[in-house]
Specification:
single chain, mainly beta, Lipocalin, 8-stranded antiparallel beta barrel, 1 helix
Length: 160
């Protein structure tokens, strides 16, 4: 095999293979969210007084998810074991509290929240899916760290 044949056939193929490995500097890159920051996404739905819209970013839990929630048979009182209070940057359970670290809308009614949790002398990170019913009166809370039937827990909105 001659050098000319090699140079005309193999060299362009090698250059093509190498260029496929090079990373495009403008291509999006998945980044880990640094502790203490809220992930922002320009394509996420957010809440306004007129209803859901396309927002420039999602820096806090949308208003329609916020409030006090309890099991259907719960009292909504602070001593209720299944009471959850959702704020803009915090989710407070009965014996633990989570500070928002990342937010991602899956649909207009489903939000995935990564929380830096603390309670009963322990700290951990937890990813939780919050899904609203169509009338926004029921909230399904799905904890990624729990499996089986106990993974999803339905709550009703408590009166203010």
């Amino acid at each position: 095999m001659s050098f000319k044949f090699f140079a005309s056939v193999c060299a362009p193929a090698a250059l093509l293979a190498l260029s496929a490995c090079a990373q495009d500097e403008t291509a999006p890159v998945d980044n880990d969210v640094a502790p203490g920051t809220v992930q922002q996404d320009t394509s996420l739905a957010d809440e306004t007084e007129e209803g859901p819209t396309r927002a420039r970013d999602l820096s806090e839990i949308p208003e329609r998810f916020r409030g006090i929630w309890d099991r259907p048979e719960g009292s909504c009182e602070p001593y209720s074991n299944f009471r959850v209070e959702i704020g803009a940057q915090k989710v407070a359970f009965y014996e633990s509290t989570g500070e928002v670290r990342a937010l991602r809308m899956e649909t207009d009614d489903a939000l995935v929240v990564t929380l830096a949790m603390s309670g009963e002398g322990q700290s951990w990170e937890q990813t939780t899916r919050l899904t609203l019913s169509s009338d926004a009166e029921l909230l399904s809370i799905e904890d990624s760290q729990v499996s089986g039937e106990d993974a999803t827990d339905a709550r009703r909105r408590c009166d203010a």
